[in-house]
Sequence to fold (403 residues):
Amino acid sequence: MPPEKKFINVDELMPQLGLADVARYYGVLLPDLTQVGNQTRMRCFLNCGKTQETGDRALAVQTDHPAKQWHCHQYGCGKGGNLVSMCDLLKPGDAAGGRPRGQRFKDIAADMRAMVEGGAPPPAAAQATAPGPLPEAKRNVPLAESPNERARALTALDGKFTLDLAKMPPRASSYFRRRPFLSPEVCRTWRAGYLPRDIGEDKSGGTMRGKIVYPYLSECGEVLTWFGRDPEFEEKHKAWEATDRTEREPEKFHFIKGFHRGLELFGQHLIRAPEHAEKLKQLGLVLVEGPNDAIRLATLGVPAVALCSNTITREQAAKAAGMARELCNGIVTIFLDCDPEGENGMKQCLGYLAQLTAVRLAWTSKMYGGRFKGRQPESLSIEDWQEIEAFLRSGEAKNWSLT
Fold:
């Protein structure tokens, strides 16, 4: 008779394991760890399908929690789970996106029991860490030059957008109404708009349907990719928070797989426009988080580029520093969201950029008497910006820190 298969209770195993146990078992080298309150923050080391390096504090793990709950704060990601889902994203083989089922779950449960009992890791883990050929250098190719015919057809996807609020579903029209600076004229300039779910026989732009869509343009103005913002994100996220959070967290921004967001800066195609030259010398290269921040500042006459993240990559830092030295008297002005996550991102940006060029902060929750605490650049009025601009021109901004 075959041996009886015993049930493995992973809920009993998880409290006995830590990050180091899992990493050691699967042959993974943990990145530098930083303690922030009850969370341990680090660069993402999971095989989660990311296409670029994350910030040093993108991954947050509650190491004191019995199930080691974790969440990725990388812009556009939002994945999360517990120790089982982490194992799924580290174990060699066909991962289940952090939600293992069937045999995959049973194999992970057996791995966790082996970790607790001090068993040897599977041979595949050792093989996974063996040196291999150097990866090909990452680069983004304009859609018009893509070898994929369907991708080439998306170059003019904005021709299918609608900017008529009456033709949008309520959540999408509300998104634009709450942001009056996203006028039809401004959207056409930035090639942004709402892509309807149903545009007849045409099936192009499938993953962007029902989203507010923006283009990521090269420095030459070529379309590299399109990315979409879910207008129903807030409702979906609120509903998700009311659950046990075992399901994948709703996605706020959706990027096409294979696009290396960390190599680019949103709005980079406009920075060298002659009309911006004097403003850039006065203010430095203004660096914001999201596309709406860059667009709003542009409507106020302020050239800015966006990370499309609340952290910066090494490649983005090098590109921003190069632009600053070329166009902005060597100064980068960090203008991320004035909230706790944004200020954590400011610290990370300061660390990366200060190694390359002069850098300063446009605001913090303590500056300006604390009146901008919790705000985003996209929410600024003309009067708000005039106050911040006067401060930046005064030269006092360099004296501020986040401590």
Summary: DSSP finds 14 helices and 13 strands in the chain.
